Amino acid sequence: MNTISSRTTASGMTSLRSIPSLDRLGSVLALLIGVALLAAPFITYRANRIVAGEGRMLADALPSKPAVAVIAVVLAIAFCAAFVRKPLVRLGAAALGLAAILPAAGWSASFVTPDGNAFARVSPSTGFWLLALAFALLAADALARLRLGPWARLLALAVAAGAVALLLASGAWDDLSLLKEYANRADSFWREARRHLWLALGSMAAACLVGLPLGILGHRIRAMRIAVLQGLTIVQTIPSIALFGILIAPLGFLAAQVPLAAALGIHGIGAAPAFIALFLYSLLPVVANTVTGLDQVPAAVIDAARGMGLSRRQRLVQVELPLAFPVILAGIRIALVQNLGLATIAALIGGGGFGTFVFQGIGQTAIDLVLLGAIPTVALSFAAAIVLDAIIDLTQRGAHDRH
């Protein structure tokens, strides 16, 4: 009897172990996918650009057989997210999901739009965005579990960018309202893209030119460090719109009184106040991280460099700054990602950038025009964060090897 009972218990334990356990994040993503399929429209159809839209579920947005196929793929991915823990399988499932819904959104536009109707607009709706979010989070989770190195992360970013470029070049999304908005504004889109990058990158570069010396001086002189960091912290607490407004009056006065300033393009509104505001916002992370990075250089390393006969300047350039560079670069990363987002607000004072489309879309109640400005901003910030994170990892390895 004891033997039979032991065998029964053992078989029961084996059967329990064979039941897959729920993955916590995956179960949340599966629930999100279920909401997207059952309770949220996949696309929105509008008779013209500005009227209220009519939501269409995924089953109604495509012909019956493709719709069933896409739904089956999505449900399989939901099961995989909830129960499968292997990172490569989860990554493949996420990629398959994106490969299914992205072309499906474009196909649905041509399917629901009447033939010959040039006024109708079809946009991805809540269900599409929820599915895209779920699959992107599943991919991010899989990549985190794989613990990819910096070069592998850069390769993954390049593959994702190539896939998006291929989707756009294929024409699969040409019937969507977002691409129609782009087609009507292609020239201005790239002009505002250049302005956006100039504001974000230029102000960050100026902040590095000023912030690095300030950080070095702050590291050397404690009283200066406290004063500078407190002043920059106060600037950081000022809302961006308020800071843009504060700069309008002095810059307008400067342009009126100094002809050279006006000739250089400095005015009360436009790119100048936006550039200066972004520059001021960028100073705090650059200065603070420079001070922190230099403070973290081991004293033993500095003593060794002093013992080798290096001067104070040589110690700074050859020893301290290289070892502090990963921390300094982390501050530059914060400044760049912050500037790419804040540059959108510059459109409110005539600074240009992708915010031009965002605020035009809000004024016209045209969500696709808002997305035309918002999506590139998010994509640039995301790509900048990944690239600089990879560079930080590489510099940390180099600093560790030197140490």
TrEMBL record:
UniProt-annotated location(s)? Cell membrane
What does the record say about its membrane topology? Multi-pass membrane protein
- Superkingdom field: Bacteria
Cellular component per GO? plasma membrane
PROSITE patterns reported for this sequence: ABC_TM1
BP terms from Gene Ontology = glycine betaine transport; transmembrane transport
Query: What name goes with this protein?
Result: Osmoprotectant transport system permease protein
Q: Which organism is it from?
A: Microvirga flocculans
